[in-house]
Design goal:
- Strands 3-2-1-4-5-6-7 form a seven-stranded parallel sheet, with helices on both faces.
- Helices cover 46% and strands 13% of the residues.
- The protein has a single domain, classed as Rossmann fold (3-Layer(aba) Sandwich), CATH 3.40.50.
- Helix 2 links the parallel strand 2 and strand 3.
- The longest helix has 29 residues.
- Helix 3 packs parallel to helix 4.
- By secondary structure, it is an alpha/beta fold.
Length: 248
């Protein structure tokens, strides 16, 4: 199995899960495009990876803006000759009781998680169709199953699952797979920012009693992005330590 010499674009890869996935893909021989809204994150990540001898470039862009996305995909192809793997990892959440959430909270959460994924898929798929090869991996969340205080996020991530399935049906005959990964509790800087009581509560709901690590996501993404995973499409892969077995 291999992704060697494949071109991968990973949104939100200036930090966290996206950055670790970019690292593992580049270490495996892929040509990787680092994307983030924050230019400083992109520049720092590219500098770090290039110092390791990895083949990466940076493309800061707002994935909620069609022109920015179209330009990012075109520049990727202009630089590397193709786009073979698209990982829609960028995401964010506004959480809170339904009565306290604003219209903006909903709009921003939907735009970043769902609209951004749609725009990136739309921009990349023509290039993939031309080469009769493509791997789309969308990072949703176990939260798509539902969770209190997560109305905008649950809606966005459920939309990503639906989009993944629709693209699998539409693009399956063109050599393009579309799959979704639904992470559970993952050890990231955001986890460290949670109050201890919140951490204990969340872990009490975890069948394994422990967090996942960013590499757990990175290796799952790489599996779905692999050339040899062509018969897997339209699926939801839970990387959640069993958390998806019940909601709440």
């Amino acid at each position: 199995m291999s992704i060697k010499n494949r071109v991968a674009l990973i949104t939100g890869s200036g930090s966290g899960i996206g950055k670790q996935t970019a690292l593992r893909m580049a270490e495996s021989g892929a040509k990787v495009v680092i994307n983030d809204l924050v230019t400083d994150k992109v520049d720092a990540t590219v500098k770090e990876f290039k110092a390791m001898g990895l083949d990466v470039i940076g493309k800061p862009a707002d994935i909620c803006d069609k022109t920015s996305v179209d330009n990012m995909i075109k520049e990727t192809v202009d630089t590397f000759g193709s786009i073979d793997i698209l990982v829609n990892n960028a995401g964010m959440e506004y959480a809170g009781a339904l009565r306290k959430l604003s219209e903006r909270d909903f709009d921003v959460t939907i735009n970043v998680n769902l609209k951004g994924t749609f725009l990136c898929c739309q921009a990349a798929h023509n290039y993939m169709v031309k080469n009769s090869h493509g791997r789309i991996v969308n990072i949703a969340s176990r939260a798509w199953l539902g969770g209190p205080g997560q109305a905008p996020y649950t809606s966005a991530k459920a939309g990503m699952v639906g989009l993944t399935r629709g693209l699998a049906l539409e693009l399956g005959g063109k050599g393009i797979t579309s799959n979704c990964i639904a992470p559970g509790l993952i050890h990231t800087p955001l986890w460290e920012e949670l109050p201890e009581k919140n951490q204990k509560f969340l872990l009490s709901k975890q069948p394994t009693g422990q967090l996942g690590e960013v590499d757990d996501l990175a290796y799952a993404i790489m599996f779905l992005a692999d050339d040899d995973s062509s018969f897997i499409t339209g699926q939801i892969f839970y990387v959640c330590g069993g958390r998806s077995l019940f909601s709440g």
